[in-house]
Amino acid sequence: MKTANDLRQEILAQVADYYLVAHQNQAFVPGESRINYAGRVYDATELQNLVGAALDFWLTAGPETEQFEEALRDFIGVREVIPVNSGSSANLVAISALCSKQLRHGLRPGDEVIVPAASFPTTVNPILQNQLVPVFVDSCLGNYNLDPNFLEEALSDKTRAVVFAHTLGNPADMDAIMSFINQHNLFLVEDTCDALGSKWGGKLVGTYGHIATLSFYPAHHITMGEGGAAYTRSRRLAKIARSIRDWGRDCWCGYDNPIDGKCGIRFEREVPGMPGFYDHRYFYTEVGYNLKLTDLQAAIGLAQMKKLASFITSRKANFAYLFENLKQFEEHLILPSWHEKADPSWFALPILVRDDALFSRHDLTRFLEENNVETRTLFAGNLLKQPAYKEIKHRVIGDLPVSDFIMRAAFFIGVYPGLSREKLDYMIDTFNSFFKQL
Questions:
Q1: How confident is the model at residue 434 (pLDDT cuts 50, 70, 90)?
Q2: What is the 3-state secondary structure (H, E, C) of the chain?
Q3: pLDDT per position as a tens digit, 257-309
Q4: Does pLDDT of 12 surpass 60?
Q5: pLDDT range class, residue 252, cuts 50, 70, 90
Q6: CATH topology of domain 308-436
């Protein structure tokens, strides 16, 4: 009679066979096959890990999640990683942690937070949700990051924090930003959802500020389908962040969820104003949510982490190849720029159509899309132009001309590891075809 382990190994072997038949990359047909700007890059290992976790049937965060947390912590080199169910949730957890009443000098309603106007919505939304006031500044042309030249002008006696993303994996000027942060004793949140592996001055972005965030949506450097993480050097912030992620409860017993609790005081917690003791697992010190990752996702993430170094190398190589071959069009296009201290782990290649070009962004992106080269606009552009943000309480510094230019004329194309040289050449040929018809 076969044991459970025998059956498990047979199932996983069949999963590997299934991958070869159903999931291996299909042949690329120029002009017919779609070239996505991003996508999942995986092999049989991800499927086997997923099915293995399903067989274990630990559906919530558990042993796989704990292993993934350790692997990501080792890669980034920080003390604490808090896995969550999305990058957006990671931003919510990070900002909410800084607003905790457990922090004597934490953020409070009405405090101001400096952000770039050209942002992804869920980088800014947690600021609004926590009743903080965003102060919008412009971005730099070419690298599309927060322009540090506006920081001093944005400062007021209510300024308490700076929050921004390293746009498309291109590091912001961390020397200038950290000088401002340290001079004025401010909090810093780095959104590195597009920038896993990017470095400034040899140091990973996300490790400069108080807390940082990641996303594992399929477009990003590694994927679990959904998923994200907050990470920090601070044990105190991490404990608060985990509490916010886990319904707001004070319990710190971890993923294994023992009946009696690791803490040893599960039934010895006193609630102020109530006689006797209360179960620590239902003692709440934060206003929280359920934002946990699942073990099914984490199992996929563990396989992806082993490929991360090669993914970063491929992204850099694909970016360099496209960049060099698109230089011939700089009369019409503004290609990305980056600081000499920056070592980007590129999410994508941003392109901006010059104002004096004989065509619009719409003309170019429509041509690319009609020829099966996928494009995306640079997220929300100037967030203040979006309908959802018309009535928010905020301040704005200047007229935001670069943010408007980004919204009007910027887009990006893919550099992800799933792009073969044949696909990259087709992308370049498609640009050539567009410019030949002008």
A1: very high
A2: CCCHHHHHHHHHHHHHHHHHHHCCCCCCCCCCCCECCCCCCCCHHHHHHHHHHHHHCCCCCCHHHHHHHHHHHHHHCCCEEEEECEHHHHHHHHHHHHCCCCCCCCCCCCCEEEEECECCHHHHHHHHHCCCEEEEECECCCCCCECHHHHHHHCCCCEEEEEEECHHHCCCCHHHHHHHHHHHCCEEEEECCCCCCCEECCEECCCCCCEEEEECCCCCCCCCCCEEEEEECCHHHHHHHHHHHECCECCCCCCCCCCCCCCCCCCCECCCCCCCCECHHHCECCCCCECCCCHHHHHHHHHHHCCHHHHHHHHHHHHHHHHHHHHHHCCCEECCCCCCCEECCCCEEEEEECCCCCCCHHHHHHHHHHCCECCEECCCCEHHHCHHHCCCCCEECCCCHHHHHHHHHEEEEECCCCCCHHHHHHHHHHHHHHHHCC
A3: 555 566 677 777 788 888 888 887 888 999 999 999 999 999 999 999 999 99
A4: yes
A5: confident
A6: Aspartate Aminotransferase, domain 1 (3.90.1150)
Q: Which of 220, 221, 339, 394 is catalytic?
A: 220
Tell me whether domains 52-305 and 308-436 share a fold.
no
Residues 342-371 have pLDDT tens digits of: 999 999 999 999 999 999 999 999 999 999
What is the pLDDT, as a whole number, of residue 261? 62
User: Is 362 one of the annotated active-site residues of the chain?
Assistant: no
- pTM score > 0.90 for this model? yes
pLDDT at 384: 98
CA dist 279 and 250 (Å) reads 10
Measured in whole angstroms, how far is the alpha carbon of residue 116 from the centre of its chain?
A: 16
Q: Please, what CATH class does the domain formed by 52-305 belong to?
A: alpha beta
Residue 213 has pLDDT above 60, yes or no: yes
pLDDT score of 282: 87
Domain map (residue ranges) of the chain: 52-305, 308-436
